[in-house]
Amino acid sequence: MNKFPIYLGIGVPEVWHYSDDALSIFTLEGNGYVQRVQSSIFPKVTASALTKLIGSSLELKRPL
Q1: Rounded to an integer, what distance in angstroms lies between the CA atom of residue 4 and that of residue 30?
Q2: pLDDT of residue 45
Q3: Where do the domains of the chain lie?
Q4: How far apart are the first and last CA of the chain?
Q5: How many CB atoms lie within 10 A of CB 24?
Q6: Closest CA to 28 of 42, 3, 11, 52
Q7: Which residues are within 8 A (CB) of 46 and not within 5 positions of it... i.e. 6 or more apart?
Q8: What pLDDT sits at residue 8?
Q9: Whole-model pTM?
């Protein structure tokens, strides 16, 4: 289900979407979302850094 129209309708300024082992950052511009390399809300946060962080988290050993 494409949730971007819902986010647009309520004015969400930025969407982070994780799919296919990669995180993408989308920023609201005008009447739609534009994919960006870094967050507009957290300027030092990049999509590639978040992808690496998620990947590392998925590899952590967790107690049973």
Answers
A1: 13
A2: 96
A3: 16-59
A4: 33
A5: 17
A6: 11
A7: 25, 37, 38, 39
A8: 97
A9: 0.85
Q: How far is CA 10 from CA 1, 14, 17, 21, 60, in A?
A: 17, 11, 17, 27, 36
Distance CA 46, CA 54 (A): 12
Show the tokens assigned to 57. 């988290």
Looking at residue 43, its amino acid is: P
Count how many Cα atoms sit within 13 Å of the Cα of residue 61 in the half-sphere of its side chain: 1
One-letter amino acid at 40 equals: S
Tokens found for residue 49: 């850094």
- Split the chain (64 residues) into runs of 10 and give each run's mean pLDDT: 94 96 96 97 96 90 78
